[in-house]
Specification:
By secondary structure, the protein is of the alpha/beta class. The chain has helices at about 40-45, 65-70, 90-105, 120-140, 185-195, 210-220, 220-230, 235-245, 255-260, 280, 345-350; strands at about 5-10, 55-60, 80-85, 110-115, 140-145, 155-165, 175-180, 200-210, 265-270, 295, 300, 310, 315-320, 325-330, 335-340.
Length: about 350
C-alpha cells in the first residue's frame, strides 16, 4: 500500500434480533455476546497496526451516539459521527466518503460492519492489505467474499469469476473478478450456489480509493454525489447534514453502486467470519453441558436438552423437563421462546411497550 488507509466502521442498526438484551439504544454491536468486550470494541481492536485511530470513522446514529462515545473516550470527537436519520448504507458510505476526502483525497478507505465476529486478527489484516493493494493498483471497487460453510439463505452471495492477478507479487493470488451479486436466495438456490463452488458470502466489507468511489457515485447515484460535494464544501458540514441527510434515498450501497459498477473485484477472506445473526448463533460461543444446553451463567438442569440460556448479570437458572428453548434474562425482562422461532423475535419487538423496544 502506498496511500494512507482509512476505515469506516458502520455502527448503526436496530436491536431486534437480540432482544431483550438489545434495544434501540443498544444494538448488537454494543453487546458482549462472545467475549468480555462488545463487538464494536473487538472491531476497533482488530484494526490495531493496520489503521490508526485518527484515520478511523465510527458512524452511528443519534440513539446510540452516547453509548458509542462512552466506549471510546480517547477517540477524537469528530471521528464519531451520528446520522440524524435512518437512511441505509448508501447514504452512510456517501457521508464517510466525504469525511475521508476532506482529509485526504488520495486516500484508500475500507468499510467494515461493527458487529461481526472475527478471531484471527493477523489473517484479517492480511486480507484487507491485499484488498487495499488491489484497489490501488486497479482502480476497482473491492469486496470481501467468505467461502460458505453451509447453504445459508440469510446472506447475500457473490458470484466469483476469473482470477485477477496483481503486479505486486507479494500479494497472494486470491483476487478475482466479480461476475455479479446475488440477493438473499431461498434455501434451494443457496444450496445450488454452494454446490457450484464459485459463490462466496457477501460479508459487507469493501475497499476502494476515494477517487474511484467518488467517480462511481457520480455515475450511478448523482443525488448522493451532490450530497458529498455539499459536505466537502468548507464550513458546510453541519448545514448539509441537518438539511440534506434525512432526504437522501433509503437504499443499500450494494444496490446503489456495487451492482452497477463495471470494475469490481473480490478478495477471498483468509480469516474466520461469523455474522452472529441471532441467539442460535451465539450458542456456538457458550459453554455447553452434556445435554447440549448452552449458557453463560450457572445452570442446573434435569431432563432438559438443547436449550440456550443467557443472562446479562450473574444468575443461577434451573431448567426442568424443557427442550429447545431460548431463555434470555435482563434486569427488566425475560424472554422465553422456542429455538425454532428465534427469527420471529424481531417481529415481536414492535408489539412491546416503547420503553422495552
Amino acid at each position: 500500500m502506498t496511500k494512507p488507509l482509512y476505515a469506516l466502521i458502520l455502527a448503526g442498526g436496530s436491536g431486534e434480533r437480540f432482544w431483550p438484551l438489545s434495544r434501540r439504544a443498544r444494538p448488537k454491536q454494543l453487546l458482549k455476546l462472545v467475549s468480555d468486550k462488545t463487538l464494536i470494541e473487538e472491531t476497533i481492536d482488530r484494526l490495531e497496526g493496520l489503521v490508526p485511530t485518527e484515520r478511523t470513522l465510527v458512524l452511528t446514529n443519534v440513539d446510540q451516539e452516547e453509548a458509542v462515545r462512552g466506549l471510546f473516550p480517547a477517540f477524537p470527537r469528530e471521528n464519531i459521527v451520528a446520522e440524524p436519520a435512518k437512511r441505509d448504507t448508501a447514504a452512510a458510505v456517501a457521508l464517510a466518503t466525504a469525511w475521508v476526502a476532506a482529509r485526504d483525497h488520495r486516500a484508500t478507505m475500507m468499510v467494515l460492519p461493527a458487529d461481526h465476529v472475527i478471531k484471527d486478527r493477523a489473517a484479517f489484516q492480511e486480507t484487507m492489505r491485499t484488498a487495499a493493494r488491489a484497489a490501488e493498483e486497479t482502480g476497482s471497487l473491492v469486496t470481501i467474499g467468505v467461502k460458505p460453510t453451509w447453504a445459508c439463505p440469510g446472506f447475500g452471495y457473490i458470484e466469483q469469476g476469473a482470477p485477477a492477478p496483481l503486479k505486486d507479487r507479494s500479494t497472494p493470488n486470491d483476487v478475482f473478478r466479480v461476475v455479479r451479486f446475488r440477493e438473499k436466495p431461498n434455501a434451494e438456490l443457496a444450496d445450488a450456489f454452494v454446490r457450484k463452488g464459485n459463490f462466496r458470502w457477501n460479508a459487507g466489507m469493501f475497499v476502494w480509493s476515494v477517487s474511484t468511489v467518488l467517480s462511481e457515485f457520480n455515475r450511478h447515484a448523482p443525488e448522493l454525489a451532490n450530497f458529498i460535494s455539499q459536505l466537502r464544501a468548507p464550513g458546510n458540514w453541519d448545514r448539509a447534514m441537518s438539511s440534506r441527510f434525512a432526504g437522501l434515498p433509503m437504499t443499500s450501497f450494494d444496490y446503489a453502486i456495487m451492482e452497477k459498477a463495471d470494475r469490481v473485484l473480490m478478495v477471498e477472506a483468509s480469516f474466520d467470519w461469523d455474522d452472529v445473526g441471532g441467539w442460535r448463533a451465539v450458542a456456538a460461543y457458550l459453554p455447553k453441558d452434556e445435554s447440549a444446553n448452552a449458557a453463560n451463567c450457572e445452570l442446573t438442569t434435569l431432563q432438559a436438552t438443547n436449550n440456550i440460556v443467557f443472562s446479562d448479570h450473574p444468575a443461577k437458572i434451573a431448567l426442568l423437563g424443557v427442550h429447545n428453548l431460548i431463555v434470555i434474562r435482563t434486569d427488566d425482562t425475560i424472554l422465553i421462546c422456542s429455538r425454532h422461532d428465534a427469527e420471529k423475535i424481531k417481529n415481536m419487538v414492535g408489539k412491546l411497550p416503547p420503553e422495552l423496544q
